[in-house]
Amino acid sequence: MSVQQHVAAADTTFTAALEPLNHALEQVRQAEIQLLQRRRQVTLAFMCVQAAYCGYLMLKWIWQGHYIGGPIYAVLIWCLLWLLYYPVSVLWYPRQRALDKAYRTLDAARMEEGKTFLASKALGAYRWVYRGGRMLAVFPDSHMLYVLAPEVGERHALMDAPRVVKQVRVDEQAVTRSTTQTTTKHGWRNVYAFNNQFGMIGGGKSRSTSTTTHDTVRTFTLHVQLQSAGQHPYWLQLPFADDWQEARNWQLLIEQATAR
User: Fold this and answer.
1) What is the pLDDT of residues 164-185, one digit of tens each?
2) Which UniProt keywords apply (predicted)?
3) Given Cys at both, which of 164, 207, 233, 256 links 159, Cβ 3.0 to 4.6 Å?
4) Any domain includes 108
């Protein structure tokens, strides 16, 4: 078992993460590199084929005497071919799925590491939450705050809440989507027949009804501003989706921990 490294400050104690979390972080980094490389390869191949095809058409039309229209049409086709770039993106889907799997593994490793660390501390009762790849815990009795997140270098950060926490707030974001549905009803039409072969259809009435539906989706994010001694302040953001009550509960819990 590796020896943990401790870097102590007046109000914050950092403890290095163990090997499982570091291994998961390395897997994510490798998956991101492989996805980026695959995208570059596919994009470069697509652009080469696109340029070769449009160049061939332009030379062909110029050879046929279309000195002005040939280059113009070649440029238009070059622009239209970009519409085919979206279906081409399926070629890097396996790399994207591998990256998503690596992120899920990282989330599980980070959560397990945080739970193990919290259980090893004799600081009284605590509550923890994991949101958006960040783990936050509060020790109400001892007024301590725990963070395991990229903002603290993927280390266990145990902080004196009254001295480190500067601001706590919950932000609301609202996104409204509008959908319009139109229904048309046609009335009766009269048919006038002069004989068995000729006739006329009379004018009818149509009525259209439009219904617009507005759907508003509200999401809430907990923002915690932290600043350790001698360090620059930074924000920790935890998304709570549409759970406004839980976000407010955590805001209150952190504010209570900051009060002596």
Assistant:
1) 999 999 999 888 777 777 776 6
2) Membrane, Transmembrane, Transmembrane helix
3) 164
4) yes
Instruction: Please give the residue range of the domain that contains residue 91.
Output: 19-120
260 DSSP 8-state letter: -
* Spatial distance between the Cα atoms of 100 and 222, rounded to a whole number of angstroms: 24
pTM, full prediction: 0.72
Q: Is residue 181 part of a domain?
A: no
Helix (H, G, I), strand (E, B) or coil at 232: coil
Q: What is d(CA 171, CA 206) in angstroms, rounded to the nearest whole number?
A: 48
- Tokens matching residue 221: 């994010």
- Which amino acid is residue 31, in one-letter code? A
Q: Is 232 exposed, middle or buried (0-12, 13-18, 19+ CB in 10 A)?
A: exposed
Tell how strand 156-160 and strand 206-226 pair up: unpaired
pLDDT of residue 198: 57
pLDDT digits (tens, 9 = 90+) for 140-151: 989 999 999 999
What digits encode the pLDDT tens for the residues 15-49?
A: 888 888 889 999 999 999 999 999 999 999 999 99
Left, alpha or beta for 190 (phi > 0: left; psi -120 to 50: alpha)?
A: beta
Counted domains in the chain:
1
SS3 state of residue 230: coil
The closest alpha carbon to 236, from 147, 162, 159, belongs to 147
